[in-house]
Amino acid sequence: MPGPNSGSTIQIHSFKHNGQLHRVWEDTLVLKGTEMVVIGANDKTMVKESDGRTWITREPAICYFHSEYWFNIIGMIRNDGIYYYCNISSPFIFDHEALKYIDYDLDIKVYPDMTFDLLDEDEYEAHKIEMNYPSAMDRILYRNIDYLTGWIRQRKGPFSGEFIDQWYERYLTYQ
After folding, report:
1. How far apart are the C-alpha atoms of 92 and 116, rounded to whole Å?
2. How far is the C-alpha of 92 from the C-alpha of 36, rounded, in Å?
3. Is 97 known to sit in a ligand binding site?
4. 23 counts as catalytic
5. What are the structural domains, with CATH classification, of the chain?
6. Per-residue pLDDT reduced to its tens digit, 25-39
7. Tens digits of per-residue pLDDT, 61-76?
8. DSSP conformation class of 161
9. Taking the model in full, what pTM does it have?
10. Strand ranges (E), the chain
11. Binding site annotation covers 144?
């Protein structure tokens, strides 16, 4: 299935393994959309949580999704540098309703100096039991954490010095 069209606005839907809707980002502008990669941007976007709470993102962000990797990357542009929030998740699908993925709890937060922390291991362990993750899930997710941390260390893809800047400049042309 083809990706979303560049210049279109889409929603992003995050689900949990049990199929429950977890979180919805209302408006993300597609900067690049193919079957393999979607790069989007948003700023001050409404986010709806599964419990009904809503909040607004605080800063511009560039979002990177890949159809073969079990993670997605959000580069948040702040005054003191670029912070990255990486969700360990299923590869995305786009079904013309929204870009969708399953959130597998684990996250990596990357700081402007490119140091990083693995977050929410306790949440992952609890949900692994509660939602009966398949036994192969650990191998898949931790292998993709290895890929992701390799990208961070090598400054590859979204972690390269110019990636966020270039896509943010493109985003500004739509404003």
Report:
1. 23
2. 9
3. no
4. yes
5. 9-173 (2.40.380.10)
6. 999 999 999 999 999
7. 999 999 999 999 999 9
8. T
9. 0.96
10. 9-15, 21-33, 37-42, 46-49, 54-56, 61-66, 71-78, 81-89, 93-94, 99-110, 116-119
11. no
